[in-house]
Amino acid sequence: MTEFWLISAPGEKTCQQTWDKLMAATTRTNNLSTNHKFSIPDLKVGTLDVLVGLSDELAKLDSFVESVVKKVAQYMADVLEDSRDKVQENLLANGVDLVTYITRFQWDMAKYPIKQSLKNISEIISKQVTQIDNDLKARASAYNNLKGNLQNLERKNAGSLLTRSLADIVKKEDFVLDSEYLITMLVVVPKTNYPDWQKTYETLAEMVVPRSSNLLFEDSDSGLFSVTLFRKAIDDFKHKARENKFTVRDFQYNEEEMKADKEEMTRLSTDKKKQFGPLVRWLKVNFSEAFIAWIHIKALRVFVESVLRYSFNSLDSLLLQINPVVVNISAMLFSRRYGLPVNFQAMLLQPSKKTMKKLREVLNDLYKHLDSSAAAIIDVSAVTTLPSAELILWTIRKH
């Protein structure tokens, strides 16, 4: 599992200084993490009310999109079955592996135009991923039904002679057919009981045809024998066979039914093969789409939280310096300032398991001078507080 921490820190005099400060603290002396700048374009800030509402909505959307990404990935593994070693090579984003995509992230202007409002972009992503989720459910249901029906037929043709289908074992010439008086029975005999069968089968009931038993098939434990007798002796023969630990299989030779079963298995197998290729391609394409959408949601959340935590706090501080009373109307001023400067640096950290604890301590120490009331670590599904640090952090786990 590869884990990334997506961090937003308030800008120094320049964003480059923020970056240099992080690099000096985490890589140049102690190699705590591998760091990458995470590029977020100048998005439309919008109003304070919209931003506050989006903060909650994006958290929910983040969880939903992540769940769809995981479902598509898991179903890819299910579909590939015995070729699960090929799962990773099919789970790509924009044609590259996930680590490369994340570390070289660039906003997709074509899919998510930055001229659109933040709310519109989030709605575009929501509709897109909801459609993927719905399509996945429909495709998975159809393929699973097909696969299940085929597996049921395959199970009938596998396993013990006591339960498996006998249609692909027996032949027409093994039976006495169309006789008013005679019938051929099929009996499963444990291999250890072969001598007993040969000695006793003619006397298990009256009117058993002498020397009529033939071994038709064997597996590792048992053999399938045929025996011919008069129809009126069927019940007595079954009873005596059971007493001797021989199992009579209920089987009637019907060429049309056997042919239909074989044709059904051939049809299901052919349909599965036909659907397999297009389904894998669909999963590959839509995993990429869902994963890309997920990382864009992360970028949106970083942007929104950074504006709310850094820019709004800075505005409050400035207004307080001018006139404490003015701060009461700062929210209204903010809501009208669509061009409010946003000063933060988003950064992607890749820690190792051994350095995670130390890295958290370093980040805490690095940003302890900031306003602790705005501090937060925002994990995939939960929000907790990172004491004494004004920092936004998401973890992105790649399994």
TL;DR?
With 399 residues, this protein is an alpha+beta fold.
Write structural notes for this entry.
The chain is α+β, with helices and mostly antiparallel strands and 399 residues long. It has a domain at 172-252: 2-Layer Sandwich (Alpha-Beta Plaits), CATH 3.30.70.100. Helix content is 49%, strand content 15%. The longest helix has 68 residues, at 255-322. The radius of gyration is 35 Å and the shape is elongated. Residues 314-339 and 372-392 have low confidence and may be disordered. Belongs to the V-ATPase C subunit family. InterPro entries: ATPase_V1-cplx_csu, Vac_ATP_synth_c_sf. GO terms for molecular function: proton-transporting ATPase activity, rotational mechanism.
Question: How would you describe this structure in keywords?
Answer:
399 residues, alpha+beta, Alpha-Beta Plaits, four-stranded antiparallel beta sheet, 15% strand
The CATH class of the domain at 172-252, by name, is: Alpha Beta
In DSSP terms (H or I, runs of 4 or more residues), the helix count works out at 10
CATH architecture of the domain at 172-252: 2-Layer Sandwich
The main pleated sheet reads as: 4 strands, antiparallel
Q: Which residue ranges are poorly predicted, with pLDDT under 50 across at least 5 consecutive positions?
A: 314-339, 372-392
Strand tally: 10
Tertiary shape: elongated
Examine the coordinates and then state which fold CATH places here, giving the name of the CATH topology of the domain at 172-252: Alpha-Beta Plaits
Order of the strands making up the biggest sheet: 2-7-1-10
Q: What is Rg?
A: 35 Å
Indicate the structural class. Answer: alpha+beta
Written as H for each helix and E for each strand, in order along the chain, the element string is EHEHHHHEHEEHEHHEHEEE
Roughly how many Å apart are the termini? 4 Å
Specify the helix fraction band: 40-55%
Kindly estimate the percentage of residues that lie in beta strands according to DSSP: 5-15%
Mean pLDDT: 83
GO molecular function, one term: proton-transporting ATPase activity, rotational mechanism
Pfam families: V-ATPase_C
Keywords: Acetylation, Hydrogen ion transport, Ion transport, Transport
Protein name: V-type proton ATPase subunit C
